[in-house]
Amino acid sequence: MNYVFVSSHLFYCTITFHFFPTYKIVYFSSHKHNSHMKKDSSFTDCISSFRTLSLTLVAINRVLLAQYASFPINGADLYDELLSSTAILSTGNESLDKLLDSGLYTGEVTELIGSPGSGKTQVCLGVAANVACELKRNVVYIDSTGGLSASRLLEIVKSKVSTAEQQLDALRRIYVTEVFDIFSMLKVLQTLRTGGFPESPSGSSSLKAVIVDSVRAVLLPVIGGNQIEGLSLMMQLAGELRMISRDFCVAVLVTNHVIRESNGAVKPGLGRSWSHVPRTRILLQHVNSEMTTQNGLRRATLLKSSRQPCQISEEFCLGSWNHHKVVKEAKEDSIPEEAH
Ligand SMILES: Nc1ncnc2c1ncn2[C@@H]1O[C@H](COP(=O)(O)OP(=O)(O)OP(=O)(O)O)[C@@H](O)[C@H]1O
């Protein structure tokens, strides 16, 4: 254990420096009330200890920067890192995959926005079922709206895998947590990040997707009144989602509502501070036609992407995840589970 001595007129305390556990910082005072202080230290000793201290602090500063600051890396290394850590998870819906440039990218936060009833939860269920059934990977599903329907999930799973055993296996890969406030949400994410995630039955940690439906439901109550606290909680949530996506190489899919402006245009909820959090954003809308409202036809429009031109859109049916895959077995080898 290394000790760093800090002289102060006010304090006599010992603090363990959390970021740097091998160092112990000891504050000691020359105040006359502290009878047990080092009274024999001369002025020159004091100056030399300050010098030592400043050198030590510089060393600590360097180590902390090396550990926690981001360093620039060249494009080739960046591309290598991308190839080794990025996987593309198919959503199970061709139209959405097309908009997302093949699917959900691990290491990124993707946002699905839309008005109530636009089908955000249906898409989340479809994605969870697809990752669990087709890719055979784990999913953490955080439900903050109470909109997750186990029967609907089973319905989608049944359309993807035929035997009861496979269906059970797939359902076991989807870990559902219900949270209804931002503090519980942050706690769940922190538990997940610090390794508190329950392992899959096979014992392999194969978490590939984290779905949060929805972020606005937990943020809305804290954003209205106390703006400063609400914003800081929102940024904390953004940080947790980003860290999980990067550290665990998982795809994070979040849902958010929209705000309708006076001219009828829609914009993503949670304002500007949130707008930079997702790397990709898709808007879900009803397709307004008497014929199409019956079969749940939706239009998905790409609003934000660093890979595709924005404002392209695709139409798809919400019930498309139910469609049975007749030639599933034959196609198993060609599932684009991990593109890189
Ligand atoms: N099995 C199904 N097949 C097709 N469409 C369905 C099915 N079940 C529900 N729907 C449709 O999904 C829509 C509701 O979708 P969903 O609950 O995903 O909306 P949401 O955008 O999550 O809404 P909210 O923001 O209120 O949570 C309804 O229009 C409903 O008709």
Automatic annotation (TrEMBL):
Query: Residue ranges of the RecA family profile domain?
Result: 85-258
Record's keyword terms, sorted: ATP-binding, DNA damage, DNA recombination, DNA repair, DNA-binding, Nucleotide-binding, Nucleus
Q: Name one GO biological process term.
A: reciprocal meiotic recombination
Q: Quote any Pfam family the record assigns.
A: Rad51
CC terms in the record's Gene Ontology section? chromosome, telomeric region; microtubule organizing center; Rad51B-Rad51C-Rad51D-XRCC2 complex; replication fork
Coiled-coil intervals in this record? none
Q: What does this protein do?
A: Involved in the homologous recombination repair (HRR) pathway of double-stranded DNA breaks arising during DNA replication or induced by DNA-damaging agents. Bind to single-stranded DNA (ssDNA) and has DNA-dependent ATPase activity. Part of the RAD51 paralog protein complex BCDX2 which acts in the BRCA1-BRCA2-dependent HR pathway. Upon DNA damage, BCDX2 acts downstream of BRCA2 recruitment and upstream of RAD51 recruitment. BCDX2 binds predominantly to the intersection of the four duplex arms of the Holliday junction and to junction of replication forks.
Subunit structure of this chain's protein: Part of the BCDX2 complex consisting of RAD51B, RAD51C, RAD51D and XRCC2; the complex has a ring-like structure arranged into a flat disc around a central channel. In the absence of DNA, the BCDX2 subcomplex XRCC2:RAD51D formed a multimeric ring structure; in the presence of single-stranded DNA it formed a filamentous structure with the ssDNA. Interacts with SWSAP1 and ZSWIM7; involved in homologous recombination repair. Interacts with BLM; required for stimulation of BLM activity by the BCDX2 subcomplex XRCC2:RAD51D.
Protein name as it appears in the record: DNA repair protein RAD51 homolog 4
What species is this protein from? Erpetoichthys calabaricus (Rope fish)
Name the gene.
Answer: rad51d
